[in-house]
Write a structure and sequence with these properties.
The protein has helices at about 30-40, 50-65, 70-75, 80-95, 110-140, and strands spanning about 95-100, 105. Helix content is about 55%, strand content about 5%. α2 (about 50-65) crosses α4 and α3 (about 70-75) packs across α4 (about 80-95). A two-stranded antiparallel ribbon has the order 1-2.
Length: about 140
Amino acid sequence: MRTKFSLKKMVFNKVSLNKLKPVKFNSLNTELQWLSQCLGLFNKRDKSSSCFRIFIELLKNTKLNKPLSSDEIAYRLHLSRGTVVHHLNRLIDSGLVISIKNKYQLSDASLRNIIENLKNNVESWFETLETVAEDIDKKIK
């Protein structure tokens, strides 16, 4: 079951966050790689960094307000459509990407806003966890 995303409120269902030491950012590419690693866009099975490359392609086109189809992404990045769809589904599940009429773009044109929405979503989820944990503690006494 897919969650529908709206541009006003993003829902992050499955996010993998990695706490990495900040490195010396001597280039935009270094910053993008670090941010992507923190967001779990790299993994050992993805030898060609396909997910990262798709994310960057979507970032560029979202800034231009040009959503892309999976075929366009596959063509531009010389990837199979299956690989692109696999990574797009992961990015949608994470809340970083939305689909509008079979075209894909980042959930917000601002990376800052995406991170802020992720933070708010995680804080809200932890509030729910705390409430349930408190209720369980009361019942166990």
